[in-house]
Design goal:
The protein is of the alpha+beta class. The protein folds into 2 domains: about 210 residues, no CATH class; about 150 residues, Reverse transcriptase/Diguanylate cyclase domain (Alpha-Beta Plaits, 2-Layer Sandwich), CATH 3.30.70. It contains 12 helices and 5 strands. A 5-stranded mixed beta sheet has the order 2-3-1-4-5, sandwiched between helices. It is elongated, with a radius of gyration of 32 Å.
């Protein structure tokens, strides 16, 4: 089993092609960025309402100002609601969609405010809209969401400028659109690079994790990872009863000596694939070392674990192995011993040692068989 690099390829919208990897990345981003996104969104609304002071300074009080204050207050309420609601959404991608809708809602309120003020200071409008576009790309979000939101903001402003244009305005609507379009494209390019870098970092971390916890040849868990998982299972009584299965490839040295180590490696990979295909997703399968493998069967008593082991033995025996021909395994099965009504039990070393003893009993009894301990109540 080899590491699948294609799972980490990005599409044109800078998202992982593999949906499961994209989902993992979203959870990764949620842990790192959720609080930042929420507070920046709230800050977005607070800054927006603070500009009511400049409205009063430029346009004075009266009915027009109070309508403006009301609009800005609505924007603040929207961001406050979004701030609290964002923390309750399970999927981070939906949180980011909420952020985009909030940004668009505030911009629509901004345009309504321009209409209310009958504002024609186009240079100030131009700067304000540029700040909106910059803010959209500043708040952490999916690159696609930023691009769509920024484009909609630009389109709405162009439509507003065309409808309420004034003769002799400077700069013209066309000039402002070009400048804002350049701002949008520049932000999109910059954030695309940042997003791509973040995802490459995530892929590198996943690769490092994969290399740390898995066996390089077979792609299943390595011994260190298995010992860690076994320790967790011993501490966690929810898995009781659980069993450990230890098996060894019969006459593996003869396979290497007769057909070469490449054939031996192929046998190891073949058996790993056969066993992986015949166990449950919840079971823990690892290469213990050399030609020895180990499996943890959770929530499984010794009788059922023995049945599982027998099916695995038969599946391996029936599997063709190229030059090596028929390959068999000898299996030892034990159930973890925990003292009744307590958290105490045997150590990881003890349970593995007992499984090892049973496995060698299978070897001595003629190989290609399962030997399980007898559990007494």
């Amino acid at each position: 089993m080899e590491y699948n690099y294609e799972r980490y390829h990005l599409n044109s919208f800078c998202k992982f092609i593999d949906k499961h990897i994209e989902s993992e990345f979203m959870e990764y981003e949620k842990t790192a960025s959720l609080n930042i996104v929420r507070f920046m969104m709230l800050l977005y609304g607070i800054i927006f309402i603070l500009f009511a002071y400049s409205d009063y300074y430029f346009y004075g009080g009266g009915k027009t100002f109070y309508v403006t204050l009301g609009l800005r207050s609505i924007a603040l309420v929207i961001t406050v609601i979004a701030f609290f609601f964002a923390g309750t959404i399970k999927q981070y991608k939906h949180t980011l969609q909420l952020v985009s809708f909030t940004e668009l809602a505030i911009f629509v309120i901004y345009l309504l405010n321009l209409y209310n003020l009958r504002a024609h200071e186009y240079s100030l409008q131009f700067m304000s809209v540029m700040i909106f576009i910059l803010a959209v790309f500043l708040i952490p979000n999916l690159w696609r969401n930023c691009l769509i939101t920024g484009t909609v903001i630009l389109a709405l402003y162009i439509i507003y400028s065309i409808i309420f244009r004034k003769a002799g305005e400077s700069p013209s609507a066309l000039q402002r659109s070009i400048y804002l379009g350049i701002c949008l494209v520049s932000c999109a390019i910059f954030i695309y690079g940042r997003e791509k870098s973040r995802r490459r970092q995530f892929a590198s971390e996943k690769l490092l994790e994969f290399m740390t916890i898995t066996d390089r040849l077979t792609g299943i868990y390595n011994r260190n990872r298995f010992e860690f998982m076994l320790g967790l299972w011993i501490k966690n009584m929810r898995h009781d009863p659980f069993c450990l299965v230890l098996f060894d490839i019969d006459d593996f040295k003869a396979i290497n000596d007769t057909y070469g180590h490449n054939t031996g490696d192929q046998v190891l990979m073949e058996i790993s694939e056969v066993v992986s295909a015949n166990i449950r997703d919840s079971d823990i399968f690892a290469r213990w070392g050399g030609e020895e493998f180990v499996i943890l069967f959770g929530n499984t008593a010794i009788e059922h674990a023995t049945d599982f082991a027998e099916r695995l033995r038969k599946a391996v025996e029936d599997n063709p192995n190229g030059k090596a021909g028929k390959v068999t395994i000898s299996i030892g099965v034990v159930q973890y011993r925990r003292e009744k009504n307590t958290m105490n039990g045997e150590s990881a070393f003890d349970v593995v040692d007992r499984a090892d003893v049973k496995m060698y009993e299978a070897k001595k009894a003629g190989k290609n068989r399962v030997v399980a301990e007898i559990v007494r109540d």
